[in-house]
Amino acid sequence: MTEQPHSGDEIAPADRAELAQGDQHDLVSQLGQMTDAEFQRHYQIMERGVERRFAVIKLAMKACEPKDFVDIGGKPWLQAIGARRCQLVTGIKVGRPVFETRVVGDDVFVECLLDGSWPAFGIDAIQIGSCDTRDKFYLGDLDDEEGRSTYQQCLKRAGGDRDTAIQMLVASVKKKAYANTFSRLVSDLMGVRGLSWDSLSHLGFTPDMAAASVAFDGGKGSSASDRRPARRGPE
């Protein structure tokens, strides 16, 4: 049974509002000018904020399913569907995406700019993600009629019309650019982007729970069951 905090440990509403609404950069710049009592008060507020943010992140990890993470080059990557589950738990807010599409020869490049915030802890972030039609995942072998690439799937749906298939492919690339950016943004706001598996295991998610392993060259890696057993985090 989880121990509930005593009323004496609670942060006063005014302090919570100050922590949530105050500019964190301004607060840091003022720390050196505070009296010892003022500094101790703010330190306790920030320390409690760190503890509670960590607790919410662990709860968000519980909402994730194994398929929500993949192992990329030995590091965890939170996929968009997992980022969405975390968003629902944490209350993270995400803005409207801004896309920039460039066409260079036969290649299409899509960049996505996305901003977001975690109001409960006064955290803001901006992320840029990208994708392009040169990615092997999309084009594959264009001459391979048995290929399973997104291009081949679009070609079948387009009845064999290449121009229509390319237009459909661009829409797919745009969706992927957004998914990449969304994942980066939520992971960044939660502070889990770039963590090692060892660090992530302390939040309750370990490599053997990941859906798949993906190589750096974009090739398909092994499934979780094919990889060597990973060290599990604390129960």
Task: Tell me what the structure shows.
There is one protein chain. This protein has 235 residues and is α+β, with helices and mostly antiparallel strands. Residues 1-22 and 216-235 have low confidence and may be disordered. The longest helix has 29 residues, at 162-190. It has helices at 13-21, 24-30, 36-63, 80-90, 136-139, 150-157, 162-190, 197-201, and strands at 69-72, 75-78, 93-94, 98-104, 107-118, 123-132, 212-214, 220-223. It is 43% helix and 20% strand.
Task: Based on the model shown, name its key terms.
single chain, 235 residues, alpha+beta, four-stranded mixed sheet, four-stranded antiparallel sheet, 8 strands, 43% helix, elongated, disordered N terminus, disordered C terminus
Secondary-structure map with pairings?
Layout: H1 13-21, H2 24-30, H3 36-63, E1 69-72, E2 75-78, H4 80-90, E3 93-94, E4 98-104, E5 107-118, E6 123-132, H5 136-139, H6 150-157, H7 162-190, H8 197-201, E7 212-214, E8 220-223
Parallel strand pairs: 1-7
Antiparallel strand pairs: 1-2, 3-5, 4-5, 5-6, 7-8
